[in-house]
Amino acid sequence: MSADLLVSGRRSRHRRARPELGAALAAVAMFAFFSVAADSFLRASSIGTVLYAASTIGIMAVPVSLLMIGGEFDLSAGVLVTTAALTSSMVSYQLTAVTWVGVLVSLLVVLAVSGFNGWMLSRTRLPSFIVTLGTFLMLTGANLGVTKLVSGTVSTKPIGDMEGFASCRWLFASEWTVGGLTVKATVWWWLGLVAVASWVLLRTRYGNWVFAVGGDAAAARAVGVPVGWTKAGLYLGVGFGAWVLGQHLLFSFGTVQSGEGVGNELIYIVAAVIGGCLITGGYGSVLGGALGALIFGMVSKGIVYAQWDPDWFKFFLGAMLLLAALLNSWVKRRAERGR
Question: Rounded CA gap, 141 and 258, in Å?
Fold first, then answer.
């Protein structure tokens, strides 16, 4: 069996299953529910807030979804966002350079970290859980230790008055208001990433490889799919998303706390699973991950607008995770029976 035949077969079955369908129905249900339960939910300002909350999760949920379809995890994704912001801030401040220098150095650093994850995975064949857990711990310690060493505190020095800050802020943290609806730059980054990643996954040979290595890496390797390079590329995608979100955090506030980001990697994974990605790999969609992030945004802000106790948010998130995992498994089994 040729590589193209193997991977095109997997993608064909994936299309018939439509893994994002459950997330789409859940998103419609959540929107209708909070439209009734919270009087202020349908206000333009509220919609803008929901979209912003969804986009800050969705920017990472997109590459994390691709990674999960490829059969891997990245437990360092949350702190990598903070690493990106810290690197950009400290390089710019300590070198008294324009902020664009820090931004570019930050991109190189996060891609190096992500590339290290992919390289370790391919060379050692260790589970991605172990590899990225190690990276998570190292980054968590380095973020705090280096920041205190350089700045003397747990946060970076303000860079709002530096050359280039305004243009960087426009690219990563600007906002536009039309008729009371405020749309922030992260929303456009999010939609752009969804479009590009969906095209790559569904219209390119590399997308075929992603499905193949996630479904059965040994079989994919046997027919000539470059498994190691495919997974390394997916980790680089996670690094790029972390860089974008990290720059947004920095240029929104001008400073960064070194302890931020811990725990966010689980939220990205939850959004991907709610969107239709299976923990076992080989199944899912980028659009589904984006819808999972949208559901996260609606629930997190809808609870506030409905004036409920926000302590219940994680309960609802956990319940949605379990229901989504069960639904995804059921849909996949039906698709395989109808093959």
Answer: 9
